[in-house]
Design brief:
The complex is a heterodimer of chains A (about 375) and B (about 575).
Chain A: H1 4-8, H2 12-32, H3 34-40, H4 44-64, H5 68-72, H6 74-91, E1 93-95, E2 98-104, E3 107-109, H7 111-129, H8 138-156, H9 161-178, H10 182-199, H11 205-215, H12 226-237, H13 249-252, H14 264-297, H15 301-325, H16 343-361
Chain B: H1 2-27, H2 29-40, E1 41-46, E2 53-54, E3 60-72, H3 80-91, H4 95-105, E4 113-119, H5 121-129, E5 137-146, H6 154-157, E6 160-162, H7 165-171, E7 181-183, H8 186-190, H9 192-195, E8 200-206, E9 212-219, E10 227-229, H10 233-243, E11 248-254, E12 260-266, H11 283-287, H12 297-300, H13 310-319, E13 329-331, E14 334-337, E15 340-343, E16 351-353, H14 355-361, H15 364-385, H16 407-414, H17 420-427, H18 437-448, E17 452-453, E18 459-462, E19 465-466, E20 473-474, H19 479-494, E21 511-517, E22 525-532, E23 539-545, H20 554-568
Parallel strand pairs in B: 2-10
Antiparallel strand pairs in B: 1-8, 2-3, 3-4, 3-5, 6-7, 8-9, 10-18, 11-12, 11-23, 13-16, 14-15, 17-20, 18-19, 21-22, 22-23
Helix pairs in contact in B: 10-20, 13-15, 13-19, 14-19, 15-17
Classes of the chains: A mainly alpha (about 375), B alpha+beta (about 575).
């Protein structure tokens, strides 16, 4: 159990921001899934609420238990997750042209979501262990590339371009904080920029059309471009204060597909306007800053790397998702933290918070 | 610390996104509001009924019948068993039958399924009143064009068809849309702009599936204007039956006013087949029928007038002083001109003939001689005096103009000069002279009225107000000379040797002229044109029977029977 001193280190504001975002997310979800719930007789809200409570409980457990235990088990968890990712490719469930889900006893899970955490754990352990070897930066680099490359390629094969990119960005941020030379980072980014056009030949037809439509949504206004156009109309029509909860016409009249999952933010935008989206942005930014502040204050390099990886993961998801909803980025299917509907994703977000707070309570508090 | 780099990148990117949010939601907000508004609202057109076409007695010959369709909306059918039971009780139709119809006609979740095509209006109102009891039931009023007079008046009413691309570009400024049916012929085409109503609409809020969520506005459709025409639909039907589907054209006109009492082209078509979707299979046989039922012979059939034209030649000869009423020509059956021999239809010859005798017997010889005296210019002048070669201007679309030949035309187009023989043929209405039945009717009408020329027309009233029709004009005939022609025309029917004696009706003096126009192939065409009563003309008429043989027989018989009908109906 935690000592009183350690409890003082518990970042209450970080926790409150998380709960606030969860609450906003649940309200938006209720509005978004209202009709679908009525039609299917399934309460999306109840399910999401269940996961949120379970996730919070799990987070508390994670705060209480010393995170070093997870670092000890990092490679094991990482390996187990890789096996799950392999299984997805073999016996996974296909939805919307991609194989991403695994059916386990009536539960559908998305191992690629959990892989984000296990990979962060594995990289943190690996880079943390190699901290004491200055001048020998080549080996850690290769090791990190292998650790991030394996889940990335398995996810790419599903295929899931968006999630694959998360692994790369997380590893990059961790590398930066660990002390990777600046020119290496610049070189890596340049290489990526050169390789990106070549990727065109490797991606699937539906991904190509998504990219084409991203360039010009009106290419296919009733097909691939429909979601982007309708989402942008929903966001834009919110204006300053929005149309009011449960009163978004784009939402309630079913113009927005996927609105309870990837496009939940367009409900916030339509029904609560610029005011609502700004509140969400402030909460997210506060959350990320508080997380990074804990990383700064801890003296444990493992903990620091863990926080940086997880905060980067959450921030990257937030930015890509909002960009997607605004039509500024291709539709890559990255859900919004704490808000998008989905059990695996909700768990991943709350477990991440749990680990961040777990590092936080164990930092020296003055 | 390196963490600061990560933090700054996150802050920077989030700030950028926040600016983008501001641009989308606030700067461009009103635009997107507008788009969202248009997204959710839709206009459901409510078709307006077309105006009726009524005959002179107020009997409809074309009208929109409002049919009530009972439809079931699949997406609203929540409790099928309850709905079917209730419907079965209300309609008195077994449940199984209702379900069978529903299953057979089901197309898609969002399109209403028609269960009953023609619901009694009382029943329709009952369902509307008890709407809550039948949430899945929708009663749809559907205007549908019906033509009670059928094929008898097909040539007058014309028919409706879907608008073509060409018509649409022309008519778009007048509010026509691509789904509109427009008049394709006859009165339906001529008065389309009046008959057509203004469509209304229902302004509704819809969801992404196009399902109605809420009604926001309503504009009731406006019925088109009704027009009353001078036709007597009962007379049309009686005459049409007389023609027995032979290729023929009949027209009857009021002498003084120019009102058409009857206008029949036979065989004809039932205009309903072009609007009734269940009768689509009847369209092709009509379009490909050799008898050309869609062809209005009265105004578009171009044929030589044959001997009926002699009346005009006789008048011109008398007026020009080339002949007198006492001038006699000896008919031996042939006229020799150079090497050519011109025959009278009576090979034995008619003996000495004066103008009235010649009209009575339709003697060719007499008119060969008159034609020689008049010359080609004189005969052409006679034709033009009676306005042959120009449309009568009746209010029907695509009227043919006909053709009056003259030496200049022959030289130019046929490449040979006008010979006297051409004049001879011309004088008896053969050769290149082409007229429509309606033109011949107006020629005889001018004789009946001593040169007063009313505008032939069909429309009498628009929406209960008298239509504007050009007044009668005079073509300047000399009454004394017309009277000499009229004596002959009266004898055509009244005399026992007259060519039109078969048209005789006891107690009615009819003046007429028969004609036989040579056809390119097959039997000759039969004509009879005239007016009645002979001394106090009230109506003029034309009967043309394609390949009807000698005019005296078929056409005259029809004329006689028609006169009986006209007298019974009080037109004589």
């Amino acid at each position: 159990m935690l000592t009183r001193r350690e409890w003082r280190g518990f970042d209450r504001l970080f926790f409150l921001a998380t709960v606030a975002l969860l609450a906003i997310g649940l309200l938006a979800l209720y509005s978004a899934a209202f009709q679908k719930s009525q039609m299917l007789g399934v309460s999306f809200l109840n399910r999401q609420l269940t996961w949120a409570i379970l996730g919070c409980a799990l987070a508390v457990v994670l705060v209480v238990i010393d995170y070093h235990r997870w670092l000890e088990w990092a490679y094991l968890l990482y390996g187990f997750n890789l096996i799950l990712l392999l299984l997805v490719l073999v016996i996974g469930t296909t939805r919307g042209g991609a194989q991403r889900w695994l059916m386990i006893g009536g539960l559908t899970i998305q191992p690629s979501e959990f892989a984000k955490i296990t990979t962060v754990l594995a990289i943190a352990r690996f880079l943390g262990e190699h901290k004491e070897m200055p001048g020998q930066r080549f080996i850690p680099l290769i090791g990190t590339l292998i650790l991030v490359g394996m889940p990335m390629s398995l996810v790419l094969m599903q295929p899931n371009l968006g999630t694959a990119s998360v692994f790369f960005v997380m590893a990059l941020a961790m590398g930066v904080v660990w002390g990777l030379p600046g020119r290496w980072i610049v070189a890596a980014l340049l290489l990526l920029a050169c390789l990106a056009p070549m990727g065109w030949f490797f991606i699937e037809g539906y991904q190509k059309s998504r990219l084409m439509v991203f360039m010009n949504p009106n290419l296919d206004p009733l097909g691939a471009g429909y979601t982007v156009i309708q989402s942008r109309i929903a966001m834009g029509s919110g204006f300053w204060m929005g149309k009011g909860w449960m009163s978004g016409t784009q939402n309630q009249l079913n113009f927005l597909p996927e609105r309870h999952t990837d496009f939940i933010f367009s409900i916030v935008g339509e029904e609560w306007g610029f005011f609502g989206t700004t509140v969400c942005f402030a909460l997210f930014l506060f959350l990320f800053s508080r997380g990074l502040r804990m990383a700064e204050q801890t003296r444990d390099p493992y903990g620091r790397l863990l926080i940086v990886g997880l905060v980067t993961m959450l921030a990257y998801h937030t930015m890509v998702n909002v960009g997607m909803v605004l039509g500024m980025m291709p539709v890559v299917g990255l859900p919004l933290p704490f808000m998008s509907y989905g059990g695996s994703w909700m768990m991943t977000c709350l477990v991440s918070c749990g680990i961040i707070l777990s590092v936080g309570v164990r930092r020296p508090v003055f | 610390m390196r963490i600061r780099i990560v933090e700054r990148v996150i802050w920077g990117l989030m700030a950028l996104l926040w600016a983008a949010l501001f641009m989308t939601q606030v700067a461009h907000g009103p635009e997107y509001r507008d788009k969202a508004e248009r997204n959710r609202t839709r206009l459901i057109p409510l078709p307006a009924a077309r105006g009726s076409i009524l005959d002179r007695n107020g009997v409809p010959i074309a009208e929109d019948h409002i049919r009530f369709e009972l439809t079931v909306l699949p997406q609203e059918l929540r409790d099928p068993q309850k709905t079917w039971t209730a419907l079965s009780q209300a309609l008195g139709i077994p449940e199984q039958e209702l379900i069978r119809r529903y299953k057979k006609r089901f197309q898609a979740r969002f399109s209403p399924v028609t269960i009953i095509e023609d619901l009694r209006p009382e029943a329709a109102f009952l369902f509307e009143e008890e709407r809550e009891k039948f949430p899945a039931v929708l009663i749809r009023p559907v205007p549908e064009r019906v033509y009670p007079s059928g094929p008898a008046s097909g040539a007058v009413t014309g028919y409706l068809g879907l608008i073509t691309a060409n018509e649409l570009t022309q008519l778009k400024p007048y509010g026509y849309t691509f789904r509109d049916r427009v008049g394709k012929d006859g009165l339906e085409q001529q008065y389309d702009a009046l008959l057509r109503g203004t469509d209304g609409g229902l302004y509704v809020e819809v969801n992404a599936q196009g399902k109605i969520a809420q009604q926001m506005g309503f504009k009731s459709p406006e019925r088109g204007k009704s027009i009353t025409v001078s036709i007597d639909s009962r007379l049309q039907e009686l005459i049409y039956r007389l023609l027995e589907n032979d290729r023929a054209a009949v027209a009857v006109m009021n002498c003084a006013s120019g009102e058409m009492l009857a206008l029949i082209s036979s065989p004809s078509f039932d205009p309903s087949i072009f609007v009734d979707t269940t009768r689509d299979d009847e369209i092709n046989p009509i379009l490909h029928n050799e008898d050309r039922p869609m062809f209005n012979r009265v105004i578009r059939g171009l044929v030589p007038p044959g001997s009926t034209f002699k009346a005009a030649v006789a008048y011109e000869g008398l007026k020009e002083g080339k002949i007198e009423s006492s001038t006699a020509f000896e008919c031996t059956g042939t006229v020799r001109l150079g090497n050519a021999v011109f025959r009278c239809w009576e090979a034995k010859g008619h003996g000495p003939q004066m103008v009235a005798d010649a009209l009575e017997h339709s003697c060719n010889t007499f008119f060969y001689q008159t034609g020689r005296r008049l010359g080609s210019e004189g005969v052409a002048r006679a034709a033009r005096l009676f306005r042959l070669g120009q449309a009568t201007g009746i209010d029907l679309p695509r009227e043919a103009k006909g053709f009056v030949p003259d030496p200049a035309w022959l030289r130019k187009s046929q490449g040979h000069t006008w010979r006297e023989g051409d004049t001879l043929s011309f004088a008896i209405g053969q050769g290149a002279l082409l007229t429509t039945p309606l033109q011949m009717l107006t020629l005889f009408n001018a004789l009946a009225t001593n040169g007063i020329w009313p505008q032939p027309h069909l429309v009498k009233m628009v929406d209960g107000r008298p239509a504007e029709i050009a007044g009668p004009v005079s073509i300047g005939l000399q009454i004394s000379e017309v009277d000499k022609v009229k004596i002959g025309l009266e004898r055509v029917v009244s005399s026992d040797t007259g060519t039109g004696r078969l048209a005789r009706v006891p107690g009615l003096a009819i003046a007429a002229k028969t004609g036989t126009a040579q056809a390119a192939t097959g039997a000759s065409h039969a004509w009879i044109c005239g007016y009645a009563p002979a001394r106090d003309p009230k109506i003029s008429f034309v009967i043309f029977v394609e390949h009807g043989g000698k005019g005296g027989v078929r056409a005259a018989k029809v004329a006689g029977q028609m006169m009986v009908y006209l007298r019974e109906m009080g037109y004589l």
